[in-house]
Amino acid sequence: MTTISAAGSTLTQQLYQKLFDRLNTDGDDALTLDEISAVDAGNAKVSKAFETFDADADGRVTRAEMTPADTFGADTLNALIQAQSGSESISDQEYLADWFAETDTDGDGLVSKSEREASADLRRAAAYDAGYATGRVLMTRRGVDTDQPLSVDDFLVGRLIAIDPAQISEVPPELKAEIERMLDSSPEEAGAPSAETAAVQPSREQITADLAERASGPTGSVSFLSREIGDLRTAEAARIAAAPMSDALAARLFQQALNSWTPWDGGEQPVVEANA
């Protein structure tokens, strides 16, 4: 079987290549409509997705045709931020309704654990590819059994702390007291820090630089630090490679392709490996 390597590809590309492997039951180098229909036989959206993938209209979807462009992950997240979720022009209730409608892939009015995990997988891949996360997050209400299918009323919207770039000239006031405690506590107030503790305490300059980098993404988002994003992407690539692809995740990938597919443009392709 042929699979895509984590090296040389985005996480979004890796997900689509894993979907290709899942559907490629005869092990050849292309997918037929029958193979793709295994996601949801009889669904007109599946036939439409096949047409979307089949760029040369030859009745077969090759691995290259099922590889989104490098910008797909970032473009998708930007679209979510601006059009669906991150825009300040829509309310949290509208954000929640949009998220629920996309996540409920079987249309039964409930989102299963598998559907929620699929939504999280897609959003995490897009966020790590883009280098930032949106300011709004979905949470289950206290006391909800998250192993059970949930209705829209079982969720609420939370907020990440998005830092205004205008605050970065100095340490933001809401963090200043904590930074003072960390860096400037006197021995009388907090006890003298040990040499080991002092060695790992960040400097004021480092804290300010980190806050500035956190605020460097689009409005309403929080950027990942350059020193942490590589490890996050590597860990997520390993998790994707090891985890089986659920029906819910396959359905969400098809839905995402229908909404905003950007085909491979013929440039350098991701690294593809042959595995027994």
Identify the notable features of this structure and list them briefly.
EF_hand_dom; mainly alpha; two-stranded antiparallel sheet; single chain; two-stranded antiparallel ribbon; 8 strands; disordered C terminus; 276 residues; EF-hand-dom_pair; 12 helices; globular; disordered N terminus; EF_Hand_1_Ca_BS; EF-hand domain-containing protein; 2 domains
Task: List the topology elements.
Blueprint: E1 2-4, H1 11-23, E2 30-31, H2 33-36, H3 44-53, E3 61-62, H4 72-84, H5 92-103, H6 113-130, E4 132-134, E5 136-140, E6 155-159, H7 173-184, H8 187-190, H9 195-200, H10 204-214, E7 221-223, H11 226-242, H12 247-260, E8 272-274
Antiparallel strand pairs: 1-8, 2-3, 4-7, 5-6
Helix pairs in contact: 1-11, 3-12, 4-6, 6-11, 6-12
Pfam families: EF-hand_7
Region (Disordered): 183-202
Protein name: EF-hand domain-containing protein
